[in-house]
TrEMBL record:
It holds the Pfam family Pkinase. Residues 61-257 form the Protein kinase domain. GO terms for molecular function: ATP binding; protein kinase activity. It comes from the Eukaryota. This is Protein kinase domain-containing protein. Coiled coil: none annotated. SUPFAM superfamilies: Protein kinase-like (PK-like). InterPro entries: Kinase-like_dom_sf, Prot_kinase_dom.
Length: 257
């Protein structure tokens, strides 16, 4: 009899806030490690809240960006050690209360709903992690080299004193649209029209599935491979059908209508 691998995951219902519920799935796989990985990735694509972040990824020792409420780290999959393309971005937020988890879980759910457009940042998974210090000797090399050709060190788990939530998305090493314009100046008229066109297409997709982003600005447009613009950060997004959320104030002063 082949050994089985077990994992539990929580999946949030797509209903409104009033009827939101969680379903716990028990996944039983007797087809080996690769089959388990495929099933886990499928659950991640469905918005599962996994608890095995430290088994899946190594995390850069230092964040590459620190925002007002979260930090961004580079992560690399332990299961794809030889591939630099496995490098992704992890948005890490320390959870100080249950309301914090509700907010980040909502962001992940809405981003997952918005998947399916080439100009929307790709979601690879979300994780709920316990507080913990890296074990002695846990630091390791993952991948042959990091950004700029230098070796990158990874640790697992992150040294957090409180539970934390992790949202894993594509890594965009070229930064955001604001960085690009600051460094190289404005786009040409033709390039600018092309950029606006693909972003309007992404927003049309978001609106067609009943969502609004509510904080569109140059810092929320990341540049992927080949400079492809990607609409990101759904932390202020809401369902059009959510009357309570739609009554709230969202956006950034200077950008909001």
């Amino acid at each position: 009899c082949r050994p089985c691998s077990l994992i539990a995951a929580a999946v949030e219902d797509e209903g409104g806030a009033a009827d939101r519920s969680h379903v716990v799935w028990l996944l039983v796989v007797d087809e080996g490690e690769e089959a388990l990985c495929q099933h886990l990735r499928a659950f991640s694509a469905l918005g599962a809240v996994r608890a095995d972040f430290c088994n899946e990824y190594g995390v850069s020792a230092e964040p590459f960006c620190i925002g007002g409420s979260a930090a961004l780290y580079t992560v690399s999959s332990y299961r794809r050690r030889s591939s630099l393309s496995a490098e992704l971005a992890a948005k890490v937020k320390v959870l100080e209360c249950s309301e914090d988890f509700s907010k980040v879980e909502s962001e992940a759910l809405l981003l997952r709903m918005a998947q399916g457009h080439p100009n929307i940042i790709r979601l690879h998974g979300q994780f709920l992690c316990s507080a913990g210090e890296p074990e002695e000797g846990a630091e390791s090399q993952v991948g042959e080299q990091g950004a700029g050709g230098s070796a990158r060190k990874y640790v697992s788990p992150l040294p957090m004193a409180q539970p934390y939530h992790v949202l894993v998305t594509d890594l965009c090493p070229e930064g955001d649209l604001d960085d690009r314009v600051t460094a190289k100046g404005p786009y040409s008229e033709a390039k600018g029209l092309q950029l606006i066109g693909v972003l309007l297409s992404a927003l049309t997709h978001v609106h067609n599935i009943g969502l609004v982003h509510r904080d569109v600005k140059s810092q929320k447009v990341l540049l992927g491979a080949g400079g492809r613009p990607l609409l990101a950060d759904f932390g202020s997004a809401a369902r059009l059908s959510d009357s309570e959320a739609m009554k709230g104030i969202a956006g950034t002063l200077g950008y909001a209508a």
